[in-house]
Amino acid sequence: MANNYEKQYMTIVENILNNGYYDNNRTGVPTYKLPHQIIQVNLQKEFPILKTKQVAFKTATKEMLWIWQSQSNDVTLLQNQNVHIWDEWVDSNNTIGKAYGYQIAKYKQLDKLIETLKNNPQDRRMIVSLWNIEDLPDMQLQPCCYQTIWDVTDGRLNCMLVQRSGDIPLGVPFNTTQYAVLVHMIAQITELKVGQLTHVINNAHIYENQIDGMKEQVKRYNILNTYNHIKDDLSLLKNKELMSVFVSNPKLKLNTNITNFYDFTIDDIKLEDYENMGKISMKVSV
């Protein structure tokens, strides 16, 4: 069954395909785009990861740990884990310059966030920003997901993720999933429950060379919706592979013994019962 997250995501996809504004951008590959798209997920009820295509959960999580835990700009650390999503942006030292994790480390932003969540959870200034104007010229790629705003309400940790530019087919599913993991991790080590993840995308776009892939994903989503209409009689689901996708309910499992954010390893973070409809190959524009 398509979950609430997937419904919101696919609504944005179809809206861009049908109503997107066509224009050029710095990559040279035109996009169809819409401004100010929002996805809101109750992490108590679901873990946001797409079923209509495979999302590389471990790769997304490794990148998040590289930024938030290692707080590194050294792409070698990712390459050693067989993660090559940053290879196109490295400088002569195999770094991304003063971007992403560099900015978290520079001002000890994560440590300050955790301390505030533990000692003053009603603080309204819990913001982690990667958009440092002074250092922008020294970044290989200026951050897309550049800010998180944190809140605690009724013992639940909420996070607003603000993204200036979002590649809807490839980047955005990665980002929503990896920041959901981050919220779960920080909630655990601050003894809070997870709450709402709100993902705000200022420029939500689909590149022209991704259109066919997204149309395929829309077809898959329509198949899931058809299955949804007959969910009360699962005997009608003749395709066993599709049935496994339909009934799956992805759940994040963290090692509950971890009480220090920096002690998590990739092996402490697992996603259970994730079934999907397979890969859709699309290009990244750099």
General form: globular
Give the number of domains. 1
Round the Cα radius of gyration to an integer and report it: 19 Å
- If strands are numbered along the chain, what order do they take across the biggest sheet? 1-2-6-5-4-3
CATH homologous superfamily designation = Thymidylate synthase/dCMP hydroxymethylase domain
Q: Count of DSSP helices?
A: 8
Using the coordinates shown, work out and report the CATH topology: Thymidylate Synthase, Chain A
Number of strands: 8
Unreliable spans are none
Overview features:
286 residues, alpha+beta, Thymidylate Synthase, Chain A, 6-stranded mixed beta sheet, two-stranded antiparallel sheet, 8 helices, 8 strands, 33% helix, globular
Summarize the structure.
The protein has a single domain, classed as 2-Layer Sandwich (Thymidylate Synthase, Chain A), CATH 3.30.572. Helices cover 33% and strands 22% of the residues.
